[in-house]
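Example 3.2
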Amino acid sequence: MRAVMVMYDSLNKAFLEPYGNDWVQTPNFTRLAAQAVTFDSFYAGSLPCMPARRELHTGRYNFLHRGWSPLEPFDDSMPQILKQHGIYSHMVTDHCHYWEDGGSTYHNRFASYEFVRGQEGDAWDGSVAGYQANQDGRAQDAKNRTRMIREQDHYHARCCEQGLHFIEQNKDEDNWYLQLEYYDPHEPFFAPERFKKLYTDVPDDLDWPKYAPLSDNDPEYLKHSILNYAALVSMCDEYLGKVLDMFDKHDMWKDTMLIVNTDHGYLLGEHGFVGKNYMPVFNEIANIPLFIWDPRNQDAGTRRKSLAQTIDLPATILELFGQERPQHMMGRDLQPVLKSDETIHDAILYGYHGMHININDGKHTYMKAASAAENKPLYQYTLMPMHIKKMISKEELLQADRTLYDKFEFNDHVPVLRIPVDERYDRKKYYKYSEHAKYGSLLFDIEKDPLQLHPLEDPSVTDGLLRKMVKLMKDSDAPDEQYERMGLQNYMETENN
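Structure, written as tokens:
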């Protein structure tokens, strides 16, 4: 058996034809949906990029204990488990966070890997002219683009080419897993001009909108950014078609699982926001596309409604290759969903570290805010003290507990640093949104209001969801202070009785 995962970043499923879009050209996603099972209720878990990828290795929530993080020494890793049991795991990616401090321990879990340079602010092109200390990623991005004038030099094209090479090279071999992972359609929405011309007669480079409320974004710039996002989605679609062509060419449908997924979505004006990371986790971010072809089921062109999420993917891949799920992996094998849309989760959690804790039971979504604006107590637990692009500072480390914390069961009581985090909603460093930040808790009936436009007030529904939330948090070995931060102590006492 073999498996190929084609993974994207920041793919909003509302831009895909199989999920109802009628203006963005995605014929290969439609072709895929006709061949595979399409999931309608698939959700992210931990957000954003690297927290989601930690889940893809470990099959358990990251966001209750840690934010952006490398893999920890005590983490289980799905691709490493495969390679340790004779199943070759290979990653091809242009996702530049893998070679930054905060993602630096993921790639070596694979048997082999290839990096494609140049995405976003990747420190790739070394032109010195105009350099300034502490320049932002946009300046680096502008230099990187000078090396990608031709479409064949574009990072997406190069990434696809290397993935196809691996498949061609190993088409006659068994027992391998390929993770072909793109950073697109994450911003900047840099696409070759021919894709832009699908949506505008005057192509431009207005493709990197601000992470800020809609009111703080220039309307004309955002309009062009949306068209450039659509252009980049269409590029993703065309290059996805090359993978489908490879499956057709070598009749790989008979013995190779295909998973097409993303880490999270992206807002382009919905709910009055642009981007991610600072607003409540609306479904445009949390409810993400998933397509799976499983040659054992031969169930093409069908859809599934049952709840599932990212933590289920590593469990599914391990099961495909006959490997046991590690003791602390919380994700479930998706086979029952693929076969008969069987329920595997009564409810699921998702969120960012230190922000809302969100629960979905298939009928309602409840976004639980912290009980106070101070958003404390809050800690992160780690033996890998890294932020996205730098190490955790000496000043932060000096605030850590003087005794290592060893109370977690999920890491077999390995002692870890316990570092306080100041994540007050009105003190975000990067985005000018303090006047918008204290959102409070939000309840939505997603059956009647799938776009989450009309918040509800229903104490009985909220009470039931909070009880489920506490149970899932307890199952996840959540730190004690999370219950205090969220004002859930009474529910915790009920759960313990």
